[in-house]
Write the structure tokens for this entry.
Amino acid sequence: MVTSRSKMFTFPHSRFIGFDHVWDQIEKVAEQGANEKGFPRHNIVKYNETEYAIELALGGYERSDLEIETQPGMLVIRGKPQDEEQSKVYLHKGITTKKFVETFRLADHVVVDGAGFVNGLLVINLRVELPEEQRPRKVDISI
């Protein structure tokens, strides 16, 4: 695996000041991608420039089996299903309800704007909230 920044990215780093942590995070995610387990399956939806959603397919889970936690720059989703009935005998069990922890890195100013769980689909809404001082503004030109 390529770990050198210069080999991994070809755009000019000299034009991006203070983004070292971003490159480190991209490399970390790229390394984890090779080990990705693929569960639970998820979509990331972009509605517009400031609104997103993460959709997780969680058939067989109950609302009470799920926990969503936000940390600075991070969203953590945990699934811990209740113990199954011991009286069930499966001839084939293709729908898994195992424990999981799924972590998503969030950019600065991205906040969780609610979540819903309907028909086995967990939808977490995200929104970009730029502080007033970081929004574009006009600069007057003095004489």
Remarks:
- Residues 1-36 form one domain.
- Residues 24 and 37 are 22 Å apart (CA to CA).
- The beta strands are 42-46, 51-57, 66-71, 74-79, 100-105, 110-118, 121-128.
